[in-house]
Sequence to fold (291 residues):
Amino acid sequence: MVPDIVKKSAFYLFVTAIVVYSVFPFYYAIITSFKTGTAIFEITYLPTSFGLDNYRAVFSSGGRAMGLMDLLTLNITGFPRNLINSVIVSSLVVCLALLMAVTASFALSRVRFRGRGLLLMTILSVSMFPQVAVLAGLFELVRAFHIINTIWALIFSYTIFTLPFTVWVLTTFMRDLPVEIEEAAIVDGASPWVIITKVFLPLLWPALVTTGLLAFIAAWNEYLYALTFTSDNLHRTVPVAIAQLTGASDKEIPWGPIMAASVIVTAPLIVLVLIFQRKIIAGLTAGGVKG
Fold:
């Protein structure tokens, strides 16, 4: 028999290796973002210098620093504008996806009609297609709606590829809710919309937080559609903006600002996960144990 101390040591060693493997790229990006000049190309694993020049370069707008009046008048360009675009697009995508997913999951889980299972499988199968496979058709739709080179093109396309996952997950969670709760609400004269908003939503918060956060991350990190449907920096999101931070040659690539921009983009996602981690865990494990 293997001693317990050996098992615990192996377990903690394995967990430590996973944590280091997962966190190290972000940690190295942070320490590199504070380096300037030739120090960027020196491989060091501990901070050797501390400077905010790269962050100032990222947040500079049109060669000048962004002031308070720029924020008040929304006269924002450059990377700050890309950051605002990402926040607006990702937030609206989450709101639209959850609104449609909650109503669709109610119908798919509570309303009996012919072809319900086939419809649910069809919705799920849409998410199996790679983004590039539907890019041409989606581009024609965006052009037909005259929303090309606007953030609405991104909101429209992102909602389409996040909706199947949110519908499938929320349908699974809503199926596990006791039928007696819905029947009691019907006896009290509640309409389907009241049942969804007043009865089911409070019980679905873990699932809503989990699916909403995953939809937010997917919209925040999306690159292909943002590159295809926008043609100027005024409407681009941060993934495309970071990709555009290049020089004339490999030696002129501004690695410092790129690392600083990567840290700025990744930090909000980490903060959101830390804030909602309990809800995320509850949402991922709910329905996993019966009895």
Notes: Residues 62-73, 287-291 have pLDDT under 50 and may be disordered. The radius of gyration is 23 Å.
